[in-house]
Design a protein that fits this description.
heterotrimer; A mainly alpha (194); B mainly alpha (592); C mainly alpha (116); A: 194 residues; mainly alpha; Four Helix Bundle (Hemerythrin (Met), subunit A); C: 116 residues; 0% strand; flat
């Protein structure tokens, strides 16, 4: 059946359903990562010593550049759709997907490096919270990539049937992706620099 | 369930002139995206879990009444690991205790109150054709069902189910052997995910899909309660999901989030990195679990409000006060949680903070209860079965709320923490409180869902028997708690001399519990019998109610309403002076 | 949200500029880290830079600068509870029985072992 305000906005709220939905979901994600940041604060405040220099700052910085870049390509993917340039949209979305993949590859190298020295999350509370925060963040990146793959693949058919609904879906994916970037913007200094 | 999807008369056939292909069995009844089907799925599943949780408690009550005596009937079926010779082992008692709490709260009450009633009633009450995200709704139910299965399966694994309390405090929960606790954590992650998906759906639906003319201050209080509840679930559950992941890592990956240094288990020092903080688990757990108790009560208050307005034939007293109170209550519920942690060594400053916020939060609760009580003044009360349960809710919630006060005050909590007084307090709010409200809701909305009334005689037997028994079960617990009897002891406190005079109550409570089980039979029989054999309703609005759900056919078809509903007035226009009838529905254009 | 091509193109310019700014701030935060400030100051600076970067992502990429009231309301509520979640558990660890309220003094040197 037709659910109202799936694509068009409701006059008094100015919102489409999906826009409100994705923001509410992001609100819950703020609380999810907030709990982990709170964990970091408590564990660090309660510790005798806190390690520094255990992580590769340069690799972290490169990954930060990669993720910021992917945020730019993501918003460009949406903007291209608003300009009705489907071809450009696909290139930007693919670029976002690829950058996300490179981020994960870098993280794999970082993890492998630690595990090779037998330093897993069990090794110290610092590594425990490091692996958990970056691991959960990484899972969110994977989730984002799955959605992007869908929008590049079978999901792209919606553009022909209902271009506005497809554009909205890309926008919502973009909001999620920017949030993932935002979390990293805080993760990087907290884990790598401080 | 069949009634909802297949009832096709000329009036209901294709609601809102929308054509849709006929669905197969699996898409119609099992993997349905229709909020009514999903609501019924939640309701049936949750009722089954409530029954199972109740059964666990009945077995516990045998051990408490007659410690060491073989359990009758099923004793030899429980297995050698749990009850050799039918005599319950302490480890098994702990499993029953932990799982009774978990199942009742997370698999029973909330899925029924929110997933069942919220899903079925709320879209109808706001005049929507369905939820904003029907597929997400279906996903929510199935994720819940899987989570529930994970919890149930844990009973039969080696080591049995989780046995560290429904609160799963570290380090006990982390050092617990077997897979039960791990399954608990995995199950919780499923349940929390289900809740999160559901709460997004609820909020978007209420904000975006209200019918024309249904302004915020014309919403039934039930919808307001569900809206605040959804916000609580949305923002309070994620920290517990994070904590669950952290505890899983402590159990499986050897991390020390919650494990302090120097821990010795079974004579052996643990080989872990240490420097973790057990209190961190408590904070993250209670950050959810306190708002969770408001998730338990708010939908119940919503249901009671609807039933009272309808059966007093007058508007609810203080609608605005109710709305502002429930919003304030929801907000405050996020900043009181450490009143569950007064005994953890917190200093006086921070304890005073939480004590103060806890006292403040009692104000909106009292306002809501008072408004409902005042609604009875000058009323023409119809003593129907739903109304009996709704009326009983008021003093029962009153007792539950008042007994919470000495627990919320830190000094008195020193004596009462972890005693049976606490168990009495929270059961009064949830059992004769919420569960009675849920019963009221089932009797009240059964005709909307099925087109048939439940039997009044059986309903009244169910009510009287349950009301008497439930008070005999929980009132003595205050006496036991004040006398110093601790919680979670498998012998009912017999090992402590100071409990000697209190032990007799365990027998009384046990008898009342098993009698209460008998009094649920009229309800179960009534429920199933009435689906096919109950008295058919003569019109879509058998209770002569004013809210939008009664504009839809009973039961509603796909798309809910035959014509698009429009709202002309507030939700409780009963006994309007000068009107021909004693009720003026929200959805009727002219005053009758 | 304006949908005409001109404003979209303006938006694109903004996205690219903000992207560049984000890169610059990333370099700044790594550079400051090389200076080895005292821990409280280092934390403060790092969080300020991160907040600036985050705000840019939120207001520009996520279009939060001109969103609707329901979104703002939900987010303000979330931020309030986020702050509660970050601060209150810390306060309970700082203020324990046997040690007077530590608001005025520095956080204790040892927490986990001594406090519990």
């Amino acid at each position: 059946m037709d659910i109202p305000y799936t694509v068009e906005t409701r006059p008094d709220t100015g919102l489409a359903n999906g826009k409100l939905g994705i923001w509410l979901f992001l609100a819950s994600e703020v609380m999810l990562f907030g709990a982990l940041f709170s964990t970091y604060v408590i564990l660090r405040a309660g510790s005798v010593t806190w390690p520094r220099g255990e992580l590769n700052v340069w690799l972290g910085m490169v990954n930060t550049f990669i993720l910021i870049g992917s945020s730019v390509t993501m918003v460009m993917a949406w903007a291209s759709l608003k300009l009705h340039d489907f071809g450009k949209h696909r290139w930007y979305l693919l670029a976002t997907f690829v950058l996300a993949g490179i981020f994960l590859v870098n993280k794999y190298f970082e993890y492998a490096d630690h595990f090779a020295r037998g330093e897993g999350p069990w090794h110290s509370t610092f590594l425990a919270i490091y692996f958990t925060l970056t691991g959960l963040h990484g899972l969110h990146i994977v989730g984002g990539m799955v959605v992007m793959a869908y929008l590049l693949g079978p999901g792209a058919k919606l553009y022909k049937r209902n271009p506005d609904q497809f554009t909205n879906r890309v926008e919502y994916t973009g909001l999620y992706w920017h949030f993932v970037d935002l979390v990293w913007i805080f993760l990087f200094p907290i884990l790598y620099l401080l | 369930m069949e009634k909802v999807a297949t009832h096709e008369t000329a009036a209901h056939g294709h609601a809102m002139e929308h054509a849709h292909p006929e669905l197969g069995f699996w898409r119609k009844y099992v993997f349905s995206t229709d909020h009514k089907v999903i609501g019924i799925q939640y309701t049936i599943t949750a009722l089954l879990f409530l029954l199972f949780g109740f059964t666990l408690m009945m077995i516990m009550r045998w051990q408490l009444a007659y410690p060491g005596a073989p359990i009758p009937i099923i004793g030899n079926m429980l297995g050698m690991a749990n009850a050799p010779g039918g005599i319950m082992l302490p480890e098994f008692y702990n499993q029953l205790g932990a799982m009774h709490g978990t199942i009742m709260v997370f698999l029973g009450v909330v899925p029924l109150a929110v997933g069942g009633f919220g899903n079925f009633v709320m879209p109808l009450q706001i005049g929507a054709p369905d939820m904003a995200f029907p597929k997400l709704n279906m996903a929510s139910y199935w994720v819940y069902a899987v989570g529930g299965m994970v919890m149930l399966v844990s009973f039969v694994l080696p080591g049995g189910a989780a046995n560290s309390g429904w609160t799963s405090y570290a380090p006990l929960s982390i050092t617990a052997i077997g897979n039960g606790q791990t399954m608990w954590l995995i199950g919780m992650i499923f349940l929390i995910t289900s809740s999160l998906l559901g709460s997004v759906n609820f909020i978007v639906t209420i904000v975006q899909l209200r019918a024309k003319g249904l302004t915020w201050m014309r919403l039934p209080f039930f919808v307001w309660a569900q809206l605040v509840t959804a916000f609580l679930l949305l923002l309070a559950f994620p920290p517990l999901e994070a904590a669950g992941v952290l505890q899983l890592m402590d159990r499986l990956a050897g991390t020390s989030f919650f494990m302090p240094s120097g821990l010795v288990v079974g004579g052996q020092p643990l080989q872990i990195s240490g420097q973790g903080n057990p209190l961190l688990w408590q904070h993250l757990f209670w950050f959810l679990a306190h708002p969770e108790v408001y998730v338990l009560i708010l939908p119940a208050m919503g249901i009671v409000s609807e039933v009272i307005a309808n059966n007093t034939r007058k508007p609810l007293w203080g609608y605005k006060a109710l709305v502002y109170s429930v919003i304030f209550l929801g907000f405050m519920s996020f900043i009181v949680w450490a009143h569950h942690m007064f005994m953890t060594g917190m200093g006086t400053t921070i304890s005073a903070f939480f004590q103060t916020t806890t006292m403040i939060i009692s104000i909106p609760s009292v306002v809501i209860l008072t408004a409902l009580l005042l609604s009875l003044w000058g009323a023409s009360i119809r003593y129907t079965t739903p109304m009996l349960f709704a009326l009983a809710f008021l003093p029962m919630f009153g007792i539950g709320g008042l007994t919470g006060l000495p627990l919320g005050l830190a000094p008195s909590d020193i004596h009462l923490h972890d005693t049976y007084y606490v168990i009495g307090h929270f059961h009064y709010v949830v059992a004769p409180g919420t569960i009675f409200a849920l019963f009221a809701g089932i009797y009240y909305w059964f005709p909307k869902a099925t087109g048939r009334m439940m039997n009044e005689m059986l309903g009244k037997i169910h009510f009287v028997g349950s009301f008497i028994c439930i008070n005999i079960i929980f009132m003595p617990m205050f006496i036991q708690g004040l006398g110093g009897m601790n919680r979670r002891m498998y012998d009912g406190g017999a090992q402590y001399a100071h409990n000697a005079q209190l032990l007799k109550w365990n027998v009384v409570i046990g008898m009342a519990a098993w009698t209460m089980a008998l009094f649920q039979l009229p309800f179960i029989i009534n429920f199933f019998m009435s689906i096919r054999g109950g008295k058919k309703v003569t019109n879509d609005n058998p209770w002569d109610a004013t809210t939008l759900e009664w504009a839809a056919p009973s039961p509603p078809g796909h798309g809910n309403f035959v014509t698009e509903p429009v709202v002309y007035r507030g939700p409780y226009e009963y006994s309007v002076p000068g009107a021909a009838r004693d009720f003026t529905p929200q959805f009727e254009a002219e005053r009758a | 949200m304006h949908s005409d091509p001109a404003s979209i193109k303006q938006g694109i310019r903004k996205y690219l500029m903000i992207g560049a700014a984000l890169y610059v701030f990333t370099v700044i935060t790594v550079a400051v880290n090389q200076v080895h400030l005292a821990v409280p100051l280092a934390i403060t600076v790092a969080l300020i830079v991160a907040t600036i970067k985050g705000s840019m992502v939120a207001t520009v990429f996520m279009h939060l600068s001109h969103e609707k009231r329901w979104i703002y309301g939900a987010l303000i509520l979330t931020v309030a509870f986020f702050i509660v979640l970050m601060c209150l558990p810390g306060f309970t660890v700082m203020d324990t029985i046997g040690r007077p309220s530590a608001w005025a003094s520095a956080p204790p040197a040892h927490g986990a072992e001594a406090g519990h």
